[in-house]
Design goal:
Number of strands of chain B: 4
Number of helices of chain A: 18
Oligomer: heterodimer
Number of domains of chain B: 1
Number of domains of chain A: 3
Shape of chain B: globular
Radius of gyration of chain B: 12 Å
Strand order of the largest sheet of chain B: 1-4-2-3
Distance between the termini of chain B: 37 Å
Shape of chain A: globular
Structural class of chain B: alpha+beta
Strand content of chain A: 5-15%
CATH superfamily of chain B: HPr-like
Largest interface: A-B, 22 and 20 residues
CATH architecture of chain B: 2-Layer Sandwich
Largest sheet of chain B: 4 strands, antiparallel
CATH superfamily of the largest domain in chain A: Phosphoenolpyruvate-binding domains
CATH architecture of the largest domain in chain A: Alpha-Beta Barrel
Chain lengths: ~525, ~90
């Protein structure tokens, strides 16, 4: 086999070496129709296989995810779901067409409902539809890929990523995609090497391949020489990681002795399972995007999660971001459907203030949990000071209400995320207890380069002097006014960027738990006094 | 054979949504009786053991669920189904 090198964009560092598992989208597959009896059997087998796959998945899930899968199992197990599809097969339709039509009708019924709870379920139906279609068309489900494989495809959804077992390594190579997409963020958090944007060449990839996630290259048909080199590089990377992990529990000081606090970003208790709390300086960001559907209005459930995180952190600060819906995170019935540019639309605090009934529930849960430990509230997408003040008034009102009810509560510190350039430039206009820089969105907005487009990915550069100047401005304001400034975007866990961030004045970073060790190792390499590319 | 009927108002916030529907059908399947459900005493009636059909009913909070059962354990079945609706499916 001839060795071939393909170039793309680096999306998640690390070296992967394994068999390519080609992930083809459903739209690309075709099949020949057989006689009625065999079409009938094809559908029956596909439904049975999908049911088996979903049932296997159920064992490893809990909470809302388990409920969703439980619902999918109940539907797949119900003959009423396939009734009209079998009728269509009897009329001579091929299995995939019969199934598609039956599901289109079922999904349409959900989508046309006035009730947002029912509309939201249409996504589960679409998931079932696609699972069964993959079996009909003979396309493997991703969850069936051998562990340690390199997933190769046009694009990959976050939910598909989460369904893959990464415990034995593996990597990702995408024809399209972007280094700042949600799935790339997940890959960095899990330490899965990833290259995006290699173009249509992904279709010709097969066999064992080498993925260099730091260089953004893919080698197919690697020569024995390349294999040996990849092995030794992977070994060196592994050794560096092991060294970093051995010192994970030690504080992070730069070469010249300046301490840097390193906190972690989480979305729930599952993210801290097995993580040594003493290794971090607290939780710098808790994403509360689990707040969909029922949970949106479930104060007890929210309180329970916040209380658990505070218990885990054992006296360290726990920063909780209020619901950050909108943008690439829609919630049916809550976010606005059909915005022409959702990233510039109703997102984060803008939406929360438009749904005060829902927002109050979260604020109540937060104020109650604040009685248990140092909980801090962080507002996303703040643009103008009145948004902070409106929230403060709501929060004080909620605390008053709780006191009247006689329950335990406290007024948590109220801070903002700095991710809108106008807010960064006018940071001294905000009377916030703390500031946390959301570098992903700040960079996307400041460089006018979308997070999900691979064509513009090189523009979305945190090292752009304009972006660094905004970060430096916020850091300087924090130092002068005695308010904590941290950074909780992906840049904080990227060893190539850490020196520039510290030189811009940041002394607190918050990163995925999986990146804490390498972040601390990178901080220890920084010589703050040395002249750097950015001051 | 005797037909047993009873009704209860849906008082849980989300109505006969995904999780409540799954709970309701799972409970119904524990009984041998033929059990049907409707949002009006006049029907149309839906098989209470089919989550797919129950979800098509799209019953929201405030609507009244009518149950109709026939078979040896029809009494117990209807009593159990009324109870789970009144207990808000054990969720709130």
């Amino acid at each position: 086999m001839v060795e071939r090198r393909l170039s793309g964009l680096p999306a998640s560092p690390g070296l992967a070496f394994g068999p390519a598992a080609i992930f083809r989208a459903i739209g690309e597959a075709t099949r020949a129709k057989g006689p009625v009896a065999s079409e009938r059997q094809t559908l029956a087998d596909a439904v049975a296989a999908a049911l088996e796959a979903v049932t296997a998945l159920a064992g490893s899930l809990e909470g809302e995810a388990a409920d969703i899968v439980g619902f999918q199992i109940a539907l797949l197990d119900d003959d009423a779901l396939t009734e009209s599809a079998y009728a269509a097969i009897e009329r001579g339709e091929p299995a995939e067409t019969a199934w598609r039509q039956a599901m289109a009708e079922e999904i349409g019924g959900y989508e046309n409902s006035d009730d947002p709870y029912f509309r939201a379920r249409s996504a589960d139906l679409a998931d079932i539809r696609d699972r069964v279609l993959r079996h009909i068309l003979g396309l493997p489900e991703l969850t069936q890929a051998k562990t340690g494989s390199v997933i190769v495809g046009e694009d990959l959804s976050p939910s598909a990523f989460l369904g893959i077992d990464w415990s034995q390594g593996g990597g990702i190579v995408l024809g399209a995609g972007s280094p700042s997409s949600h799935v790339a963020m997940l890959a960095r958090g899990r330490g899965v090497p990833m290259v995006v944007g290699i173009g249509p060449d992904w279709r010709s990839v097969f066999g064992v391949i080498v993925v260099d996630g730091a260089a953004g290259t893919v080698v197919t048909g690697p020569s024995p020489d390349s294999v040996a080199k990849a092995r030794s590089q992977a070994g060196a990377l592994g050794a560096a990681r092991a060294r970093a992990e051995a010192r994970m529990g030690e504080p992070a000081l730069t070469r010249d002795g300046t301490p840097v606090a390193v906190m972690i970003n989480v979305a729930g208790m599952a993210d801290v399972a097995g993580f040594p709390v003493a290794a971090c300086d607290g939780i710098g960001l808790t994403r509360t995007e689990f707040l969909v559907e029922q949970a949106l209005r479930d104060e007890a459930l929210q309180y329970e999660l916040y209380a658990q995180l505070l218990g885990w952190a054992a006296g360290r600060p726990v920063t909780i971001r209020t619901l950050d819906a909108g943008g690439d995170k829609p919630i049916p019935g809550y976010t606005i459907a059909g915005e022409s540019n959702p990233f510039l639309g109703l997102r984060g605090i803008r939406l929360s203030l438009r749904h005060p009934d829902v927002f109050r529930i979260q604020l109540r849960a937060l104020a109650r949990a604040a009685a248990l430990g140092p909980l801090k509230i962080m507002l996303p997408m703040v643009t103008a000071p009145h948004e902070l003040e409106q929230t403060r008034a709501l929060l004080e009102d909620v605390v008053g209400e709780l006191l009247t009810e006689g329950g335990a509560c406290a007024l948590p510190a109220l801070g903002i995320m700095v991710e809108v350039p106008a807010a960064a430039m006018a940071v001294d206009a905000f009377d916030a207890a703390f500031f946390s820089i959301g570098s992903n969105d700040l960079t996307q907005y400041a460089t006018a380069a979308s997070r999900d487009g691979s064509e513009v990915a090189p523009y979305a550069d945190v090292l752009h002097p304009g972006v660094l100047a905004m970060i430096a401005r916020v850091a300087a304001h924090g130092a002068a006014s005695g308010r904590e400034v941290s950074l909780c975007g992906d840049a904080g866990g990227d060893p190539r960027l850490i020196a520039a961030l510290l030189r811009a004045g940041l002394r607190t970073l918050s990163v995925s738990p999986g990146l804490l060790a390498v972040t601390k190792a990178a901080i220890r390499e920084v010589e703050l006094a040395a002249p750097g590319p950015a001051a | 054979m005797q037909e047993v009927t009873a009704s209860a108002r849906l008082i849980n916030t989300v109505g006969l949504h995904a999780r409540p529907s799954v709970k309701l059908t799972q409970l119904a399947k524990r009984f041998a009786a033929r059990i049907e459900v409707a949002t009006s005493a006049a029907g149309p009636w839906t098989d209470a053991k089919s989550p797919v059909k129950i979800m098509r009913v799209k019953a929201s909070q405030g609507e009244v669920l009518h149950f109709k059962a026939s078979g040896a354990d029809a009494d117990a079945a209807v009593a159990a189904l009324i109870d789970i609706v009144e207990r808000k499916f054990g969720e709130e």
